[in-house]
Structure formats: structure tokens, C-alpha cells
């Protein structure tokens, strides 16, 4: 199994920045599709960003495109989500997810991911 541990959440003012980290067990980054999802209170879990190291591809939800950047450090088996120009509507628990066999065209579908971290809280105040 794959273990994922998120960190880096916190409280920021609107317009501020945070960088989230997802530490994965094994050599996950080189062989898995990795995604970031978020869930606000009373809302469904929604896609934010995904990366495939082997394909050299990234993909973003329209709501975060231009503000968030997903990246990875293969040597550290760690995926990052750099979040800039944060808005109050970005407030949510952010989850890291991974799947070995997922087709990259399905990366926005949360039901396609086999492994999930526990989440880290991001709160953006106005």
C-alpha cells in the first residue's frame, strides 16, 4: 500500500501564499499519478491539481489555474502544491491522492484514486 502524509496548511490572509507538501512512501512519484483535492465544509471533495512524473504532465482545475502550481521532487518522493493569491473560497481541507493505474485523462475524478492522505487545513481570511 501507499502512505501519503500532507503538511503545510495554516491560516493566511487573502492574497497570501502557502506551500503544501505530500510525502509518499516508496517510489510513488515516479510511477503514480499524484493529485491534490480539497473539501470545504458541507461541500463535495473537488479536484485542484494533478501531476504525472513519467508523462511530464500537469493539470489544473479552472478555479486554481494561474494561482496554484503542482510540482514534485522525485528524490524525496514528495509532491508540492504552491498556492499563491489565495482567496477565502480556497478555504478547505486539502488532500493528497495517488493511483498507479489511472489514465491521465481521468485525473480530475476523485473516485479513480486508490490512496489518500489525512488532509491538511487551509484557512484564508478576508
Describe this structure in words.
It is a single chain. This protein is mainly β and 126 residues long. Helix content is 3%, strand content 48%. The chain has one helix spanning 28-31, and strands at 4-7, 10-13, 18-24, 33-39, 46-52, 57-60, 68-73, 78-83, 92-99, 115-116, 120-125. The strands form 2 sheets. Strands 2, 4, 5, 6, 9, 10 and 11 form a 7-stranded mixed sheet that branches. The chain has a 4-stranded antiparallel sheet with strand order 1-3-8-7, with no helix packed on it. The chain is globular.
What's the average pLDDT? 95
Q: Estimate what percentage of residues fall within beta strands.
A: over 45%
Main sheet specs: 7 strands, mixed
How many H/I helical runs?
Answer: 1
By secondary-structure content and strand pairing, the structural class works out as: mainly beta
CA radius of gyration: 13 Å
How many strand segments? 11
Uncertain runs are: none
- C-alpha geometry: globular
Give the SSE order as H and E letters.
EEEHEEEEEEEE
Percent helix, as a range, is under 10%
Q: State the separation between the terminal residues, measured CA to CA.
A: 40 Å
Summarize the structure.
This protein is 3% helix and 48% strand. The protein has 126 residues and is mainly beta.
Task: Please give the structural blueprint.
Layout lengths: L3 E4 L2 E4 L4 E7 L3 H4 L1 E7 L6 E7 L4 E4 L7 E6 L4 E6 L8 E8 L15 E2 L3 E6 L1
Parallel strand pairs: 2-11
Antiparallel strand pairs: 1-3, 3-8, 4-5, 4-9, 5-6, 7-8, 9-10, 9-11
